[in-house]
Specification:
Layout: E1 3-15, E2 21-28, E3 32-38, H1 40-43, E4 47-54, H2 62-66, E5 76-83, E6 94-95, E7 105-111, E8 116-118, H3 120-124, E9 161-163, E10 167-179, E11 184-188, E12 198-203
Antiparallel strand pairs: 1-2, 1-12, 2-11, 3-4, 3-6, 4-5, 7-10, 7-12, 8-9, 10-11
Length: 207
Amino acid sequence: MLGLIGKKIGMTQVFDANGKLIPVTAIKIEDNVVVSKMTKDKNGYDSVLLGTLDMSEKRASKPYAGQFAAAGCHVKEELKEFRDFEKDVNIGDSLNLNLFEEVMFVDVTGTSKGKGFQGGMKRWGFGGGRATHGSKFHRDLGGTAMSSTPARTFKGQHMAGHMGNAKVTVQNLRVVKSDASEGLLLVKGAVPGCNGCTLIVKKAIKK
């Protein structure tokens, strides 16, 4: 498994060699520093802890800032752990988009936009009732339980509630362009989250 931490810039569109318009999402990936490593002998599993985006040491607590001393790098704002990292790296190494040099498809994980409390039609795509005058059933949720048997609402019933602000992964996004010098990755299609949010970009599992 290969992965890096990035930031969503926004969406745009590019033309391919045949003149076809392709909607793409621009992801900014700055250098990811290897802060620490976990090994199976010492920790019970293999993983790599990557950090990116410098932050002021005044904002960091002493326990948080102390873990960067071994890596010999500045205090990082974003930290993510990647298990079973394919590339052999050492503490203090800096990784960039050259890591995805031969990768054609990626999986992108982020936090979706929060929509607040929403009704059943927006949250779950319910059809609602008739829009005619006097219907009295337009956007209501409708019945949620059975009759006298079993006389209860089953767990997991689709109802109104909090929508969005959840961890979402979009798989098999094709890499349209990768520019390591600029730290810019263009992938076809949309990725979760608002502009400026943190994303985890990994080598696609299925492709």
